Amino acid sequence: MELDALKKATEEFKALGATFIAISPQLQSFNREFTEEKKLTFEILSDPGNEVAKRYGLKFKLPDDLKEVYLKFNIDLEKYNGDDSWTLPLPARLIIDQEGIIRYAEINADYTVRPDPEETIAALKNMIG
Fold first, then answer.
1. Contact yes or no for 113/90 (Cβ under 8 A)
2. Measured between alpha carbons, how far is 112 from 105 in angstroms, rounded to an integer?
3. DSSP letter at 56?
4. What is the pTM of this model?
5. The domain spanning residue 106 has which CATH number?
6. How many independent structural domains does the chain possess?
7. CA angle 32-35-37, nearest 5°?
């Protein structure tokens, strides 16, 4: 997904009275660096060990062959995530109300496919009427 489209979607969420956040297993220092570098208009929260992802059933462990591919591309999850679990969350977009109830979920088992925020915006618009 292009960052410009994500930034635009963030503004639409704000206009609808919602807050858009991202959650990443990366250490907060890497999230902060990425946010500043890309001039993101939303916050990226850190989920050490993918504990939040685990609670939502989104945590998965990369198989050894994929771990080797990551390392060949200089993507060291141990470095970025601060642990040796080699786990990631499945790509997901959730709408969670103020009581903590999930009102909408879009999850893809293919970690290379990111949900389109337009679908999430449409679901939010339907909810608020």
1. no
2. 17
3. T
4. 0.84
5. 3.40.30.10
6. 1
7. 105
What are the pLDDT tens digits along the chain (129 aa)?
Answer: 577 777 888 899 999 999 999 999 999 999 999 999 999 989 999 999 999 999 999 999 999 999 999 999 999 999 999 999 999 999 899 999 989 899 999 998 887 787 778 888 999 999 987
Closest by CA position to 103, among listed 128, 75, 71: 128
Query: Residue 108 CA to chain centroid, in angstroms?
Result: 12
The tokens of 92 are what?
Answer: 């997901």
Domain range for 97? 3-128
Residues 6+ apart with CB under 8 A from 43: 21, 22, 35
Give the whole-angstrom CA distance, residue 82 versus residue 63.
18
Q: What letters, b where the CB count within 10 A reaches 16 and e where it falls short, cover 48-70?
A: eebebbeebebbbebeeeebeee
